[in-house]
Amino acid sequence: MTATVVGEQRETPTARSLRLSATDLRPPLAGQHIDVRLTAEDGYTAQRSYSLSSAAGADPLEVTVERFDDGEVSPYLVDGIEVGDALEVRGPIGGWLVWRPESGDRPVQLIAGGSGVAPLMSMLRTREATRSATPFRLLYGATDPDRVYYRDELARIAADGVQVDLRYSRRVPNGSDLVPGRIGRAELEASTLPPADEPSIFVCGPTGFVEAVSDGLLAIGHAEERIRTERFGPTR
């Protein structure tokens, strides 16, 4: 189906959020993704999948795209496409990494690595849009402060009562007492809801990140059936 770019926002030097009007798509759930297809003048097509970062049922939709310089799709979406331009989309797709507000009051722990925060942002925005009282907490790992998506919105969400914990693997903010490093068992024990709370846990990020976090969660006592994961490689 055809979608039109109706808005955009730069998130980081290499990432951009696009708001897409695609009224023929069915309303998305929090955590789903869409396929985006581009067609060149010579008929060549390239298709990639992008998680929705907008709230469930939102119109317009939003995707956040990270640019890979050798990619076929991401450089155009981050630096080329303009408001008013059209592209093809399919979806929404996915039923595993999905949070539904009506699923109950069980607390929710979100854990993101890099651009894996996009579908988890959809869940946070859905919680806010539906005025859900479900307790949420986010642990978000980025390489450095310049690579944090949705910085201002996350600060506002934190001020409204959702605990947001940022960690950095390479460089921390100036003046911070944080130590750069990957999220491991110690960080999971200190910065996530405890197993006794029986939270629903959603983990999204690169394959190595998701595997390490999942192993750490199991090691500190979380039940495997409460952990839902989505992993990805570079989307070019």
Automatic annotation (TrEMBL):
InterPro entries registered for this protein in UniProt: Cbr1-like_FAD-bd_dom (IPR008333), FAD-bd_FR_type (IPR017927), Flavoprot_Pyr_Nucl_cyt_Rdtase (IPR001709), FNR_nucleotide-bd (IPR039261), MRET (IPR050415), OxRdtase_FAD/NAD-bd (IPR001433), Riboflavin_synthase-like_b-brl (IPR017938)
Ranges for domain FAD-binding FR-type: 1-99
Cross-referenced PROSITE patterns: FAD_FR (PS51384)
Keyword Transmembrane assigned: no
Source organism, top-level taxon: Bacteria
CDD domains: FNR_iron_sulfur_binding_3
Pfam families xrefs: FAD_binding_6, NAD_binding_1
Keywords: 2Fe-2S, Iron, Iron-sulfur, Metal-binding
This protein's record includes keyword Signal: no
Ranges annotated as spanning the membrane: none
Cofactor: FAD
Identification of the protein by name: Ferredoxin reductase
Species, as recorded: Amnibacterium soli
